[in-house]
């Protein structure tokens, strides 16, 4: 009922999107409950085992959202209607599903939620499973020519893996979500390679993929195309070119999204496009236009001014190393302050350690929710890690950002990173 956490399934029409989302969070006591059995049973009842259009599934430790953004932008510039399902969202839940050039509406989501609820009976779906089934229901009914599906966590046991991908992409492989995916790259790579399918093409944007990923592709007979071997890119800050099997794209623009690794993501998207086949062919000029137009907020997003602001969702060590490379490449005239808030199940020490020597003063904040970490606890960790640097804990991200900005002077830089929640709150303050 409105104002409560529970919606009665027999009277769902009157409830809004936020009511539905709160209710979905109560269905399964586990935030993460990996496994396809529950989802598969509901999907079978809904007829969602296959989609009526080509599917590209995208997994990876980092770069998944960016790769989907490049694919979507290029295909839309070529005139193809696209359905793109991504996770997590930054500002609004509706961002997680774009169909034929627009975000899905509340009423469309609620109708799909009703369909899932009617099919699930007493099956305790997680929040992510419920939303994935709803997204697939909407995509199946759409007029999209291609579906782009971003994997939420891992690959093999993620709800997105219900659908057989025509092209499966793994953008990068590093350590994250180690409680679920394993503590070494081979274990993580094996999980992510779970989205590969027998006899269907696969792409890996990691220039040094773990042996487990390559071996799994060989065992399936999946044709694996790897960055630096089967496709490459060359260029600099002025532009770049791409070369792959039977195709060359020259005079490509520098990606608008920040970070040198974005060329890897864009190149990987181009490889996936080549493997989709002639029915979705894209020429070089359209590819260049799509890359130039692709943008995701919170990915090394720079807000220029007397005080430079850089906002990044970097929430694991690999992403933090990418952020550090950008900070080194553009040193400020003055000091750098960091607003850092990270979830409790992340490796906070490794993430902060990637920025060693690049931050003069730290501001921490408490993240809400069951996975949240207190700003005080994070501050204590940073004081041990960086004993010669000021560290201040704040009640929330907005307060940490305002204090950091008020203490900055012309020529200084303020960086916010550590999670999607961190980027979301800072961008809300700035906008």
Characteristic key phrases:
single chain, 431 residues, alpha/beta, UDP-N-acetylmuramoyl-L-alanine:D-glutamate ligase, Protein-Tyrosine Phosphatase, Chain A, 2 domains, eight-stranded mixed β-sheet, six-stranded mixed β-sheet, 37% helix, globular, disordered N terminus
Radius of gyration: 22 Å
CATH architecture of the largest domain: 3-Layer(aba) Sandwich
The CATH superfamily of the largest domain bears the name Mur-like, catalytic domain
Instruction: Tell me about the largest β-sheet.
Output: 8 strands, mixed
Unreliable stretches (pLDDT < 50, length at least 5) are 1-12
Query: What is the CATH fold-level name of the largest domain?
Result: UDP-N-acetylmuramoyl-L-alanine:D-glutamate ligase
Which bin fits the share of residues in helices? 25-40%
Beta-strand portion reads 15-25%
SS class = alpha/beta
Quick recap:
The protein has 15 helices and 17 strands.
Molecular structure report:
The structure is a single chain. Helix 12 links the parallel strand 14 and strand 15. The protein has an 8-stranded mixed beta sheet with strand order 4-3-2-5-1-6-7-8, with helices on both faces. A 6-stranded mixed beta sheet has the order 12-13-17-14-15-16, sandwiched between helices. It is an alpha/beta fold and 431 residues long. It is built from 15 helices and 17 strands. It folds into 2 domains: 285 residues, UDP-N-acetylmuramoyl-L-alanine:D-glutamate ligase (3-Layer(aba) Sandwich); 130 residues, Mur ligase, C-terminal domain (Protein-Tyrosine Phosphatase, Chain A, Alpha-Beta Complex), CATH 3.90.190.20.
């Amino acid at each position: 009922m409105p104002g409560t956490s529970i919606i009665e399934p027999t009277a769902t029409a009157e409830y809004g999107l936020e009511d539905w989302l709160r209710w979905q969070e109560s269905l399964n006591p586990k935030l993460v409950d990996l496994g396809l059995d529950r989802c598969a049973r509901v999907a079978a009842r809904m007829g969602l085992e296959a989609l009526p259009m080509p599917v590209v599934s995208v997994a990876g430790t980092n770069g998944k959202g960016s790769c989907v953004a490049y694919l979507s932008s290029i295909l839309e510039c070529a005139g193809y209607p696209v359905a793109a399902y991504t996770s997590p969202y930054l500002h609004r839940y509706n961002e997680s599903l774009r169909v034929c050039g627009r975000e899905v509406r509340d009423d469309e989501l609620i109708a799909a939620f009703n369909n899932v609820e009617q099919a699930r009976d007493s099956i305790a779906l997680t929040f992510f499973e419920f939303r994935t089934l709803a997204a697939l229901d909407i995509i199946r009914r759409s007029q999209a020519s291609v579906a782009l599906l971003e994997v939420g966590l891992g690959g093999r046991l993620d709800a997105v893996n219900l659908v057989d991908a025509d092209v499966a992409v793994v953008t990068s492989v590093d350590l994250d979500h180690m409680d679920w995916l394993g503590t070494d790259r081979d274990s993580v790579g094996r999980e992510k390679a779970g989205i590969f399918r027998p006899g269907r093409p696969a792409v890996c944007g990691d220039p040094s993929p773990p042996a487990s990923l390559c071996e799994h592709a060989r065992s399936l007979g999946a044709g694996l195309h790897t960055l630096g071997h089967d496709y490459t890119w060359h260029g600099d800050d002025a532009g770049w070119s791409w070369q792959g099997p039977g195709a060359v794209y020259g005079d490509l623009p520098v990606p608008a999204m920040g970070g040198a690794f974005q060329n890897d993501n864009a190149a990987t998207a181009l490889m996936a496009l080549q493997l989709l086949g002639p029915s979705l062919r894209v020429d070089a000029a359209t590819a260049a236009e799509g890359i130039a137009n692709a943008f995701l907020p919170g990915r090394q997003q720079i807000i220029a001014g007397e005080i430079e602001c850089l906002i990044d969702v970097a929430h694991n060590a690999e992403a933090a190393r990418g952020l550090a490379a950008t900070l080194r490449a553009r040193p400020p005239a003055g000091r750098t302050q960091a607003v850092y808030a990270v979830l409790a199940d992340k490796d906070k020490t490794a993430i902060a350690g990637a920025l060693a020597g690049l931050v003069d003063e730290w501001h921490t904040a408490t993240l809400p929710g069951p996975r949240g970490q207190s700003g005080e606890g994070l501050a204590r960790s940073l004081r041990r890690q960086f004993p010669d640097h000021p560290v201040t804990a704040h009640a929330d991200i907005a307060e940490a950002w305002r204090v950091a900005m008020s203490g900055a002077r012309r020529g200084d830089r303020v960086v916010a990173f550590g999670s999607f929640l961190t980027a979301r709150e800072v961008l809300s303050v700035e906008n």
